[in-house]
Amino acid sequence: MKKLLCAMASIALMTSPVAIAQPDHQQGRQQDRQHETRGEGNRQGQQRQGQQRQVQQRQAQRQVQQRQVQQRQAQRQVQQRQVQQRQVQQRQVQRQVWQRQAANRAYNASTYRSTNYGYADPARYRSNRVHSGWAQDRGNTYRWREGERMGYYDWYYAPRVSYRRYHLRRPPYGYEWRRYDDRYVLVAITTGLIMSVILDAAR
User: Fold this and answer.
1) How many CB atoms lie within 10 A of CB 150?
2) From CA 188, how far away is CA 163, in angstroms rounded?
3) Does residue 91 form part of some domain?
4) Domain of 117?
5) Count of CB atoms within 10 A of residue 176's CB?
6) Cα(35)–Cα(51) distance, integer angstroms
7) If you ran DSSP here, which 8-state letter would residue 153 be given?
8) Rounded to an integer, what distance in angstroms lies between the CA atom of residue 24 and that of residue 42?
9) Residue 174 included in any domain
10) How many other C-beta atoms lie within 10 A of the C-beta of residue 164?
11) How far is CA 130 from CA 97, 148, 162, 182, in A?
């Protein structure tokens, strides 16, 4: 009997540490799982924060791009306005120059007819038939038409213009473009015969 009791006691002592160790091992696994879940939660939270930051950065970049586009548009509008103002000023200056030239032509024509400034008398030219094919001078206010003949001094004081610069058709041989008041007149050099009259749209 004593031997049996001793054997049972020894078996109990040997099995008790195993039983105690099993609950401790289970608790360790649970703690590890908790740590893993917490780590995954932290990683997911960091990923979400990173994504949110990227979204915010993209939005900020879009806002910056939109501002740049608006600034460029504003600059273009300012440049267009400046160009338009310059064109208007240039047109005004051109009109003033043309008006001065027209006034000078009218003044020169009137003074030339009254004093001749040392030139020969027009009647002498007609008597010598140097300009016998020309018509009578009619002044700066006359509206010339196709088929008419200009006076020699009306043709002489009308400035000659370049057909390339003013986008006119090339004159035929023996003709040239002259600017008379607000019109371009295609005139024969020797006879003053008017082939074409074009109104200046810019005036």
Assistant:
1) 25
2) 15
3) yes
4) 62-203
5) 16
6) 24
7) H
8) 27
9) yes
10) 8
11) 33, 19, 27, 29
| Three-state DSSP class for residue 174 | coil
Segment 44-90, tens digit of pLDDT: 878 888 888 899 999 999 999 999 999 999 999 999 999 999 999 98
Residue 123 to residue 131: CA distance in whole angstroms: 10
Residue 13 lies in a domain: no
**Bridge partners, residue 136, by sequence:** none
Counting DSSP H helices and E strands in the chain, the numbers are 3, 3
Assigned token pair, 118: 């040392």
Q: Where are the alpha helices (DSSP H) in 116-203?
A: 122-128, 152-157
Structural domain total, the chain: 1
Tell me what percent of the residues of the chain surpass a pLDDT of 90.
20
Q: Is residue 194 part of a domain?
A: yes
Interatomic CA distance for residues 10 and 96, integer angstroms: 130
pLDDT of 147 higher than 80: yes
Sheet holding 175-180, edge to edge: 175-180, 183-188, 194-199
Contacts of 98 (CB under 8 A, 6+ apart): 203
> Strand, helix or coil at 35?
helix
